Amino acid sequence: MLLQVHNLRKTFPIRGGLFGKRTGEITAVDEVSFFVKKGETLGLVGESGCGKSTTGRAILRLHEPTSGEITFEGRSLLALGEEEMRKARRDLQMIFQDPFASLNPRQKVFDILEEPLIVHGMGNGPERKEQVQELLHLVGLNQSHAMRYPHQFSGGQRQRIGIARALSTKPKLIVADEPVSALDVSIQSQVLNLMADLQEKFELTYLFIAHDLSVVKHISDRVGVMYLGRLVELADRDDLYEKPLHPYTQALLSAVPVPDPDFQKQRIILSGDVPSPANLPKGCAFHPRCPLVMDICKEVRPEFTDQGGGHFSACHL
Amino acid sequence: MSAHTQPVTFTQPEPPIAPEKEIVESPFRDFVRAFLRHRSAVIGSVIVLSFLLIALLAPFITSYEYTARSQALLQAPSVEHWFGTDEMGRDIFTRVIYGTRISLWVGLFAISGSIMVGSLLGLVAGFYGGWRDTIISRFFDILLAFPSILLAIAIVAMLGRSLSNALLAIAIINIPTFGRLMRSKVLSVKSEDYILAARAMGMKNRRILFHHILPNCWTPIMVQGTLGFATAVIEAAALGFLGLGAQPPEPEWGTMLADARQYIQLAPWTMIFPGVAVALTVLGFNLLGDGLRDIFDPRMKQ
User: Fold this and answer.
1) What angle is formed at CA A71 by the lines to CA A65 and CA A72, rounded to 5 degrees?
2) What angle is formed at CA A204 by the lines to CA A79 and CA A1, rounded to 5 degrees?
3) Which of A18, A249, A259, B79 has the most CB atoms less than 10 A away?
4) In this structure, is residue A134 part of a structural domain?
5) How far is A275 from chain B (nearest CA, A)?
6) What is the DSSP letter of A62?
7) Which positions in chain B touch A140 (Cβ < 8 Å)?
8) Which residue range forms the structural domain that includes residue B257?
9) Are A245 and A315 in contact (CB under 8 A)?
10) Is residue A49 part of a domain?
């Protein structure tokens, strides 16, 4: 068990009025619990605004969690002081969604890759140089690229730089926040393959956040589905895709396009919109849109429990 | 693979990365190229550079001393005195040339001073926010509440009239301009992903501030600094004109204009040449500043 997240909550205050009084709060992540085993890839899916990115960032304490517990290698991350956390970041890295925004435009690739090593005091000058070259090689770039600036690369190449940067400190866990969704479809597969190769080579553990179900299916060992800040279902990949238990997961999976014109399928069309995270529905967050809603759903929040064989679901059904 | 997922194809081979030529397209090179293409930037920089050369080479350009008096009072421009002479028989050309030194000196030091203080305050206010931001921003608001030249006059009146006090006053009144600019730029850069990435890497605040935020904030400061240089030259001349800046016999352009007031009809050259010098300097810096703004504006990039 590399990472354990227990009842993670992150709320953002809504401020209004002349003096910035707190007028409400947005619940971005609502009591999310899961664990990630060493060497596996946990996919986290959900639609825009469901809190999956916030979850990833809260785990790295880039957004300070409001409450909950995060245990990484037996250590509680939230108990760490600022300096201890800074040092711990060596083991927890992140790959960002937008390869155009996540690289400092005024740094050369070499400096981008060398800086994490400097920050964590890894190696001396020549050693670092060698390591940067190795990193470039690992992600399929060559040495001449080191002296260039990010704007001279394509999206896919930039994402490779982002991956190389995340790898530079030899981390144990990488939170990949939609690492391919900003890329061209033809490039996506290359980057996914690269990530899979690197995982094998360095025994990396990924928390892979995405909204593309086919991408998540390809790369993940286990998949978690989020809705409105809550984890509604989490199971082994095949289990989840074959036998989804939660009505939301069922609806989500039924929306995946199948490239077969003769394929007849039953689409579950949800009515209405996602409720505002500033004003969550009582009981199950999904009940206003659930086709199978019962009375209990409107009152009692379903527990996120193991329904057998490590298949977690939060539903009264 | 189950029926309702789209198979992702993974047959695409990696495109070979061609060995490319070792040309580093640094932002600086881009900048130089864009700069040379921009007409007003080039004209502006030519004007600015000429004044800089004039200031540096003053003793070689003119053979007179700027305090040396001759018998010829208020003489019209001639071969001997290119810009004529003033009411004390001093060569105006020489005085204008040496005046360049004073104006550029004041501009350079006043503006560098306000950039340093203003940027630092703006950086702290924007990056840390909270009470630091409140205090610093209110300080800027207070400074901006006064008309700037009035504030400068008040500061000089308090400290005593001299060129260095005028310089200090000009530096102080320009602080909020740079401070607010820096603060707003820091606020926007702070929310960029690469700053989040830097934090995720485990960098300390100081490193993030000076290695990642500052380098991405300096372009508007540079543009504003160039434009501010022009304002500083005018402000110095204004203070000189009011008798609060450089004191006679210093050949400051504003002071020269003040002295020439009485003779404007009798000997207009006493006023025209220092006036033209001020105008040209300001024009040069403004053209340069506008040019830089165009070049740095990302929307102008093709």
Assistant:
1) 110
2) 50
3) A249
4) yes
5) 27
6) S
7) 14, 17
8) 47-65+101-300
9) yes
10) no
